[in-house]
Amino acid sequence: MLRKIRVLVGKPGLDGHDRGAKVVAAALRDAGMEVIYTGLHQTPEQIVEAAVQEDVDVVALSVLSGAHMTLFPEVQRLMTEAGIGEKLLTGGGIIPGDDMAHLLELGVGRLFGPGSSTVDIVAYIREWYGERFGADALPPLPPPPARPEPVVGSGDFPVPSPPLDRHHARGAARPVPAKRAPAAKLKPAPKPKPTAKKKVAKKKAVKRPAKPAARRAASSGPKDKKAAKRQAASSRPKAKVAAKRPRVAKKK
Length: 252
Prior knowledge:
By secondary structure, the protein is an alpha/beta fold. It has helices at about 20-30, 45-55, 70-80, 95-105, 120-135, 165-170, 215-220, 225-235, and strands at about 5-10, 35, 60-65, 90-95, 110.
């Protein structure tokens, strides 16, 4: 019985974007491979240890942090020390072409950049596996999934799959509902008329008796105390001052 190709997908370093790694892992699974995903923020030592424990054939790294020139050689060195240097080390990410060529010279496998097709990734891994173990050991490809391919080549767009069950067929053949006529505008309710205010009878002013002349004069005087004192002092009659007699010198 032919065994499945085992692939380890790892995210080394501090890179926290794993959507591309999950999409590639799903595509490899649909191609009949057995995929082990390590998760985010893995060290090279953890990835190599997982590869040894799971006895994988391929180690695929997803590096989007720009540290590919450090992480790929480090993982390759640790794989050689662990005795699995003959396994395929591949991967992808935002990697310039010059760096891809340099890593290829160091012994790293083919690397895939943004916009790569998952079909090419599957074909490359199967080609490497067939060259290593022979074409007879290569398991056949399963039938394509019912859903469209999650990632396509650059410039292409996925084609929606036709309806497969009765529910989707019934939903596709459902007539489009007609547009409803606009609702008639409602007239605003009339405002209530203001009620007439009750007239309040004004009270007649009560006439007060006139004040006596003395009180009226006192009330009409200055209100300031100092001014009142000055007025009272000026109204008093001045006392007569006796004329001073000249002093007569006494005779001795």
